Amino acid sequence: MKALVVLALSSLCATAMADETPTDAASHNVPVEQYTYSSHPDIKKVISMSEVPDVCEVVPARMVYEDSQGTRHIMEYRIMGNGCSHG
């Protein structure tokens, strides 16, 4: 179940178009929210997401998004890196 949530967040983020850089959101002093498996974020529009490094371990990632009321959020979560071989 946890892997599905991470995969869903990753897929959602990967398909979103970024219209500004994460540093623009940081300049608005938006606090970073920590994602937990019991979180139910109201994500209407993904603004940007951090690059997933080519390492074979769990790493932190960030997503900047707007909720249904237009409020900007920065969410930090953990994701598996892209550096693992499958064989």
Key traits:
Spermidine Synthase, Chain: A, domain 2, 87 residues, four-stranded mixed β-sheet, alpha+beta
Describe the structure.
By secondary structure, the chain is α+β, with helices and mostly antiparallel strands. It has one domain: Protein of unknown function DUF2790 (Spermidine Synthase, Chain: A, domain 2, Roll), CATH 2.30.140. Helix content is 22%, strand content 30%. The chain has helices at 2-15, 22-26, and strands spanning 32-34, 45-49, 58-66, 72-80. The chain has a four-stranded mixed beta sheet. It is elongated, with a radius of gyration of 13 Å. The two termini are 24 Å apart.
Which superfamily, in CATH terms, is the homologous superfamily? Answer: Protein of unknown function DUF2790
Described by strand count, sense and barrel closure, the largest sheet is: 4 strands, mixed
Structural class: alpha+beta
Corresponding CATH architecture: Roll
The radius of gyration over CA amounts to 13 Å
Count every helix, treating DSSP H or I runs of 4 or more residues as helices.
2
Number of discrete domains: 1
Mean pLDDT: 80
Backbone shape: elongated
Percentage of β-strand residues: 25-35%
